[in-house]
Design goal:
The complex is a heterotrimer of chains A (555), B (525) and C (360). Chain B has 525 residues and is of the alpha/beta class. Chain B contains 19 helices and 20 strands. In chain B, the strands form 6 sheets. Chain B has a 6-stranded mixed beta sheet with strand order 16-18-17-20-15-19. In chain B, helix 4 packs across helix 8. Chain C folds into 4 domains: 80 residues, Roll (Ubiquitin-like (UB roll)), CATH 3.10.20; 120 residues, 2-Layer Sandwich (Alpha-Beta Plaits), CATH 3.30.70.20; 61 residues, N-terminal domain of TfIIb (Single Sheet); 71 residues, no CATH class. Classes of the chains: A alpha/beta (555), B alpha/beta (525), C alpha+beta (360).
């Protein structure tokens, strides 16, 4: 049997929503790369100008344009894998192997992506595919929201999910609540965006429910690209129906009829799990028309894979990427709640946010609210990795002291060294060290130290680590992932990387600091999106906690 | 154009027929592309798969010269499906009953037979255009350069009248004029039927007006056209003055044209260069051209704009108005005591109703579109708003006619001609611009790849192209822009004088030549 | 009610100004004195928000906002130039200056080519700070005679990409790669000739640094004397685009689009932009010509030629009557030519034997 023709591949997607990414993947999967001929066919078939298509392809890390490219191994050069000698593994794998940014396996380094597989191991001979580990239960037996049922056996299948209370929240919402009551319940719970932005979820849903224009869309942001973050992968791998149920609740609340899961390319296993779950849900009438017998409750979910671009986790870029456009962030206002996918009202929620919704609906806003410490509402999943005894995902009450997490929950340092520093928000929050390690895990506390909790990735560095090198690795990541749209980020991340590497810039501390601070200041104040605003936290915190190390390096 | 250029961004349905706008009027085409980007849908009817066809939502690859059949078929569907704008028809038109009865016979299936376009696509085109909120028609010489050019235009008018897509923003019937001042030449009275400002010569009032102005009696009878004049050279016509036209290369049937000009007793040519036509003249005057002379012109949307001299004219070149005035004075003709272009233009404004509200100073910034009937009038960007100039819009009852020559065993291939983006007309100007050769250095005949092999030709090889009037040699270019059985060539290159072949017939009303259709025979050369 | 909807007010640098809903802060501010600097802005294009030079302070908003993309709103209090804002602008310009081979270019490169130079001077950003790698890479291999692709000078504002897409609708170029590695590229990174480029030159004219240059005009780079601009209408098709002809010492050295031309609003095509040099081409007729006894055309004085021309018409008139004379006016010449031609026939010979070339 011959391979599917260009025409057939295009035909099978042309009338689907957001067709460009799946068409690109279909050709990429068929041929193992995107040939010029393929791109020309797609350009014609989807009526996308060829120069636009060609350059958009170049934007993504993982779309190979040379024959055999897809099967070539890519080795993580993220902050955690670098602590485990990822460079040596890259060398071992020899010609054809290239480095890639963090694929979210920081709990079990080093990660290698080859074709449709993620392999893990510290040397070429021990690389093997390993499924996502289940999050460990917390030591105090604290009540959980996101991970409340995730450890139930069979939870990832529809049958197992339903046995453990799955889709009961949706049934409750359909049978016993009005959409407005549903929005109110979420609002009252204090649930806020768990992807890092922290926008109140109830307010977002309300805004979309009230915005003019149809059809409305629910986008699940599963483009977990932040180095040191791997919580959404664990959720989706072990509790995929919770994602679907969360999205269906959002649809019920807002009147949205179409949904997308925008999943990062680096999670091929997750893709298969979600596909199966979506098919099960469709077959069971939990997606489609008149869901659960509710007249006019129509909702479909389309799974779309990214292609390797950190910036696509930014909601404007994500929407542009879905629409097949160049994935630059969008100018705001207008916001997605009124002008989202195809310029229509759209909810963009992180995976963790969405899966929090079903337990809230079932157990009530007050229950969720009370999960946090003191006045703080709910929980946050923290991905912990690096020089720590037990790396992994932990759902912590909002406001848990960082020290409690590091020492009591995760067993303290992994090696003989004392802890030196941690990152916050993956890499985006920069470093915390010294006295600032006494923060509690909530935005007010962490922001008061000049950082932020964000998506909840924490990477631990012990005393044996070179913090300037860690900062340089982080800034290189931001420079590589800067989209190139705005000047401060495009040039600033490059200049900061050069200065951390010592490859150019002033050779003495005063001049170095003046330039680095000026660049950081303008990036924070004027960048067009969070990437450029956050990147200088790396240099700022380095200057704050480790000025001697910098000075030593400059000599 | 009935509507301004800026309106090209505004329709929700665009119907382009017989216009290769992206190449011939690229700046106008940008308006259409903007409309498409905003979500407008576009129907394109053209024998060739031009760039515009690629941008279209519905492309109708019609056989050359079959436009009337297509348009009748569309009108039939609009009428049959009840999509006509009855209120508009009742209020603003006349003759609809007879017209709609006449339409009954012209089914899309009938039109499909003639045009080669699917009946279903013809239906869809009709539904799209008639269903538009703002439907706009754009056309160029692909409509007019036929023996049925007038019928083609009237058929388009019928569609607009049926659907009420006229007299409003973003609608209209919009011909794009091909030359920088072809509109102004007509405005200024350089046509046999009208005095300046389209005042018919047959109207005795106009005759009296100009008797007074020009100091002599001019017959209230339409003069002969240039085509007729060329036919009568050496007989009735003995002396001719031609300004700025390379007649020999741009007109159809070159042999006939050469013979005509050679039979004159006296030929005077005014031009920038010594053209092939100038080579036949008794006297050639060097004209000051673009960038060297002040003046005014009118564009395709009837906008009157100023020309300004940037440099001193080349050599001894002089403005056309000066040359003609000097000649007139030597012949003792009164009224040519002009000292500047301003004097001439102000006289034109004084006696032309459409320019009556203008003068040299008022056109400084080009904000007026005629008619500007009196001082203080803002100009008329959109024609036929509220009312047609002559009262009601008249439906034209007409039928399809075959082109003057149709393909047969001897001449089995349709040739159609036109322009290309990088060249203009006979290349007297564009051909002398540095760099143009980099993009387009020679003429080619565009042939469908399957025809290239079927006819034993070779891509980039030479062929001979022959019609009933002559033959030319040209290089073959295999391209699917051309449909099977139809070939294309521009008339820009002097070494491929394609107008040796053309000239099979003329529109009986306008005497525009059927340059778009010419049966030919092709053989490897 | 209508009044309330259509006009609102905001405070701009301490002054109350009115605006219509939908206008951006930049649009509102452009009506007031004090120019907000921009590099990625072209008023014909959708606001992009890339250069961030147009940031302004809005009362109650933590970070400065890009004025080109932020809509004005009722009661908004905006400061367009403060010490902090101006410092951001200077640092941004220093960063931009650090990534380019050169800042100063000949104005013949293009209409907007002096924008970066002017801003760097205005904000005294010629400091040599932030030294480091340079971005962009000139395409010296693209040998087209019209558009210089000197991308060493590119600052990634993407005005070229956007004008090609939004204004011209050609989509011939786009942004390859990302971050500091972005480059302007055609399909498969080839030359413009092998792309959808139609050589309209719009990218050249909107480029704020001269990274794209008008190669034809650049032939006259560095010559002494001022450049003068004169505005006629393009001599080719009937669209009637306004153009600015650039001259120096009575020589045409280039063409730039007239951004306020009523028919084209700044747009041009390859012919209007680049096909002007026929005007001063050596092939031009320099003197009148008369056919001699030898059957050849010979140079003649105006007097001789006019006499000869007049004599021919006189003879035709006398021998064959007024009906034997015919005039063909030009669709390429000005109204004044067509008008005098028809008057020549009608007033001179009393006939309507006049036509123009619209039939060809």
């Amino acid at each position: 049997m011959s391979a599917t023709s260009d025409q057939d591949l295009i035909e099978s997607w042309r009338d689907e929503p957001a067709p460009l990414l799946p068409v690109l993947h279909a050709f990429h999967d068929r041929d193992g790369y995107l040939s010029e001929e393929s791109m020309r066919s797609i350009s014609q078939g989807l009526r996308t100008p060829i120069a636009e298509l060609f350059t958009t392809v170049s934007f993504y890390h993982h779309l190979a344009t040379e024959e055999g490219g897809k099967e070539k191994p890519r080795v993580c050069n993220g902050p955690v894998c670098c602590l485990r000698d990822a460079g040596k593994l890259l060398e071992e794998l020899g010609e054809g192997a290239t480095a890639m940014p963090c694929p979210g396996r920081c709990d079990e380094p080093v990660a290698v992506l080859r074709g449709d597989e993620v392999l893990l191991g510290l040397s070429a001979t021990e690389l093997s595919p390993i499924p996502s580990p289940l999050p460990a239960p917390n030591p105090g037996g604290l009540d959980e929201c996101v991970f409340g049922s995730i450890r139930e056996p069979g939870r990832s299948t529809l049958e197992g999910y339903r046995k453990t209370g799955g889709y009961e929240a949706l049934e409750k919402a359909v049978n016993k609540m009005t959409p407005a009551e549903l929005v109110e319940e979420i609002s009252d719970s204090g649930l806020a965006g768990r992807g890092g932005a922290g926008f109140p979820t109830g307010r977002k849903w309300k805004a979309v429910a009230e915005a003019p224009g149809n059809p409305k869309t629910i986008v699940c942001n599963a483009d977990e690209g932040e180095p040191g973050c791997f919580k959404d992968r664990a959720i989706m791998d072990h509790d995929p129906h919770a994602v679907i149920e969360g999205m269906a609740l959002a649809a019920r609340a807002t009147g949205a009829t179409r949904g997308f899961i925008y999943l990062r390319y680096e999670y091929p296993g997750t893709c298969a799990i979600l596909e199966r779950a979506l098919n099960e849900a469709k077959a069971a009438g939990l997606l489609g028309e008149n869901i659960l017998g509710a007249d006019g409750f129509d909702f479909r979910i389309h799974l779309r894979r990214g292609a390797g671009a950190y910036i696509c986790g930014e909601e404007g870029s994500l929407l542009n990427s879905l629409e097949g456009k160049h994935p630059f962030p969008r100018n705001r206002p207008p916001y997605p709640v009124t002008h989202g996918f195809e310029d229509l009202p759209t909810v963009v929620n992180n995976v963790e946010t969405l899966v929090s919704a079903p337990p809230i609906v079932l157990r009530g806003a007050a229950w969720y609210q009370a999960l946090g410490e003191g006045e703080l509402a709910g929980t946050k999943v923290i991905s912990l990795s690096g020089d720590i005894a037990r790396a992994g995902n932990n759902e912590v009450p909002m406001g848990l002291p960082l020290g409690t997490l590091l020492h009591d929950w995760a067993g303290g340092p992994a090696r003989e060294h004392e802890l030196q520093a941690v990152t916050m928000a993956g890499l985006s929050g920069g470093f915390l060290a010294g006295d600032d390690l006494d923060v509690t895990l909530d935005e007010p506390s962490i922001r008061s130290r000049g950082s932020f909790l964000g998506a909840g990735g924490i990477i631990v560095f012990d005393q044996g680590r070179d913090m300037v090198a860690a900062a340089r690795n982080a800034m290189e990541f931001f420079a590589d992932e800067s989209c190139g749209k705005c000047f401060p980020c495009r040039i600033g991340t490059k200049r900061l990387t050069e200065r951390l590497a010592g490859s150019s810039g002033p050779g003495e501390m005063a001049g170095w600091e003046a330039e680095v601070r000026d660049i950081g200041k303008v990036m924070k104040a004027t960048s067009a999106c969070g990437l450029g605003m956050a990147a200088p936290l790396i240099t700022e915190s380095l200057l704050k906690y480790f000025p001697e190390e910098i000075a030593r390096r400059l000599k | 154009m009935s509507n301004p250029l800026v309106d090209m961004q505004k329709p929700d349905v665009i119907f382009c027929i017989g216009t290769n706008m992206t190449e011939c009027h690229p700046v106008a085409a940008t308006g259409i592309k903007k409309a498409l980007a905003k979500g407008a849908r576009m129907i394109v009817a053209d024998p060739r798969r031009i760039r515009l066809a690629e941008l279209a939502d519905l492309y109708l690859p019609i056989r050359v010269g079959s436009d009337v059949a297509l348009l009748l078929g569309m009108a039939h569907v609009i009428s049959r499906e009840g999509l006509a704008d009855e209120a508009f028809i009742a209020e603003r038109t006349t003759g609809s009953e007879e017209f709609r009865k006449h339409l009954e016979q012209f089914t899309p299936e009938w039109a499909a037979e003639i045009t080669g376009v699917n009946a279903a696509d013809i239906e869809q085109a009709a539904l799209l255009y008639a269903g538009a909120e703002r439907g706009a028609i754009y056309y160029t010489l692909g409509i007019t350069e036929h023996i049925c050019g007038v019928d083609n235009v009237k058929s388009l008018c019928n569609l607009a009248l049926m659907t009420g897509h006229i007299g409003r923003e973003g609608t209209g019937i919009n011909p794009l004029r091909g030359q920088n001042n072809i509109q102004g030449a007509g405005d200024s009275g350089a046509i046999p039927a009208n005095y300046p400002g389209f005042q018919p010569v047959v109207d005795p009032a106009n005759q009296a007006k100009f008797r007074k102005l020009y100091g002599r009696e001019i017959p209230a009878e339409v003069g002969i056209t240039k085509v007729t004049a060329l036919d009568r050279c050496g007989e009735q016509i003995r002396a001719m003055i031609i300004d700025g036209e390379n007649t020999l290369v741009s007109d159809p049937d070159r042999k006939h044209c050469q013979h005509a000009l050679e039979s004159l007793d006296h030929l005077v040519v005014i031009d920038l260069f010594l053209t092939e036509t100038g080579e036949l003249a008794d006297v050639v005057f060097p004209a000051a051209g673009f960038g060297e002379t002040d003046g005014t012109c009118a564009n395709t949307e009837r906008r009157v704009q100023r020309l300004r001299a940037a440099v001193t004219p080349h050599g001894q070149a002089k403005p056309d108005w000066w040359i003609i005035s000097q000649l007139a004075r030597r012949l003792g003709i009164d009224g040519f005591e002009y000292e500047s272009a301003r004097d001439v233009f102000n006289e034109l404004c004084d006696l032309s109703p459409i320019y009556a509200g203008l003068d040299w100073d008022l056109v400084e910034n080009g904000e007026y579109q005629w008619p500007v009937p009196e001082r203080g009038h803002p100009g008329t960007p959109i024609l036929h708003e509220g009312e047609f100039e002559n009262g009601r819009g008249i439906f034209s009852v007409l039928s399809y006619r075959d082109p003057a020559e149709t393909i047969d065993d001897e001449y089995p291939v349709w040739l159609t001609t036109g322009r290309r983006l990088e060249s203009y007309h006979t290349r007297t100007q564009s051909g002398r611009a540095h760099g143009i050769d980099y993009l387009l250095s020679e003429e080619t005949l565009e042939v469908h790849p399957d025809d290239v092999s079927a006819w034993g030709l070779e891509d980039a090889g030479w062929c001979e192209l022959a019609s009933r009037r002559g033959a030319v040699r040209v290089k073959v270019q295999a391209t699917d822009r051309s449909p099977r059985g139809t070939v294309f060539c521009s008339f820009s290159f002097n070494d491929v004088p394609v107008n040796i072949l053309t000239g099979s017939g003329y529109d009986p009303v306008t005497q525009t030549a059927e340059l778009k259709v010419c049966p030919v025979r092709i053989s490897k050369a | 009610m209508i009044e309330k909807d259509d006009s609102r007010t905001m405070i701009l640098d301490g002054v109350e100004v009115s605006f219509t809903p939908g206008e951006t802060i930049y649009e509102v501010a452009s009506r007031s004195p004090g120019e907000i600097p921009t590099l990625c802005y072209d008023k014909r294009l959708d606001p992009f928000g890339g250069c961030r030079l147009c940031v302004v302070e809005v009362e109650g908003v933590r970070n400065p906002v890009a004025s080109c993309t932020t809509p004005a709103s009722e009661g908004m209090e905006v400061r367009t130039s403060t010490e902090a804002i101006d410092e951001h602008r200077r640092i941004l310009l220093e960063l931009v200056a650090s990534e380019n081979r050169q800042i100063d270019v000949d104005p013949l490169r293009g209409y907007a080519s002096q924008e970066l130079t002017e801003l760097v001077d205005r904000y005294e950003a010629r400091t040599g700070r932030f030294e480091g790698a340079r971005s962009g890479s000139s395409r010296t291999d693209d040998d087209n005679p019209f558009i210089l692709r000197d991308y060493d000078l590119c600052i990634s504002c993407y005005r070229c990409v956007r004008v090609c897409a939004e204004e011209e609708g050609d989509h011939a170029i786009n942004v390859l790669n990302r971050g500091f590695e972005t480059r302007i590229s055609t399909e498969f990174d080839g030359s413009l000739k092998d792309s959808d480029c139609t050589f309209c030159g719009q990218c050249v004219q909107t480029c704020p640094t001269g990274a794209l240059g008008d190669r034809k005009a650049m032939r006259y780079e560095g010559e002494p004397g001022n450049i003068e601009k004169t505005r006629p209408i393009c001599p080719y098709c009937g669209v009637g685009c306004s153009i600015d002809v650039m001259t120096r010492d009575d020589r045409i050295i280039g063409v730039q689009p007239a951004m306020d031309g009523p028919a084209n609003l700044g747009a041009l095509c390859i012919k209007g932009q680049f096909a002007y040099d026929f005007v001063q081409h050596p092939d031009r007729l320099s003197t009148p010509l008369i056919r001699g006894e030898d059957g050849e055309l010979h140079e003649a004085t105006w007097d001789e030629a006019l006499d000869r021309a007049a004599a021919g018409f006189k003879e035709a008139l006398e021998k064959h009557g007024a009906e034997s004379v015919y005039g063909v006016a030009s669709g390429r010449a000005p109204n004044e030519a067509a008008y005098t031609m028809q008057k020549f026939i009608r007033a001179g010979f009393g006939t309507n034997q006049i036509d123009n070339c619209s039939r060809a």
